Amino acid sequence: MTELTKLTDTYSLNNGTKIPIVGFGTWQTPDGQVAYDSVLAALKAGYRHIDTAAAYGNEESVGKAIADSGVAREDLFVTTKLWNADHGYEATKAALATSLQKLGLDYVDLYLIHWPNPAAMRDNFEQLTADTWKAMEELYASRKVRAIGVSNFRPKHLDVLLKTAKVVPAVNQIFLNPSDMEADVVAYNEAHGILSEAYSPLGTGKIFGIPELKTIADKYQKSVAQIVLRWSLQNGFLPLPKSVHTDRIEQNTELFDFELSPTDMETIDGMHGVAGLANDPDQVDF
Question: Which residue intervals define the domain NADP-dependent oxidoreductase in the entry (predicted)?
């Protein structure tokens, strides 16, 4: 396990790029003042890793907050994602250009394929995956992105991608929390040098209703969110907590003055299904 001392400590991706071990998520954060204020608050609280996506519809507000924060671009790690309608070689390149324009950036640090098998394209999945990844590799070579990866990919989707890939994905961002550790996906990621990122590290809020977590939180005099984020880090994951409340944004950075015991880690590991499971990408209707 990486020694955890502060928010800006980094993991090394498989291409050598450094990525801060905790990111600030913006999924379900509405565009406009809410997204702007929350990202600005996160940067003020010390986050240097911001995660957004074309599908979130808030790239412009995220970009404006980055520009107004006063934080140097080279000190930030910014992720965005390719949406399902934009799979394919030319469409992928055009989609990144649009995202960069909205973000007001010359490059992003990480560009991800958001979902592996869009509903409208399932009869042509393998070829589209190959064409999309080829475009991603060329964007990486052109330095418009510093690393490329995927999101919501299961082993079978990664197997398809790796048939033609020249660059192994650096990251697989998945629904990863005590309720669904996605053990088979994490094991595959580890075997291939792919970092597991958690886009719902707090189980979209559902974990807050689990009494056992409250008991553990009381023991450490921490919040349930802090306990679960610390659990994520001690498992070697990269959590992306999301909040629009300044006090919680700040609280979610306070993860480095305690360590969960092996017994408590095991207890949390055993909470499968208590707050929902990941969607099967082959079954979603988008």
Answer: 22-270
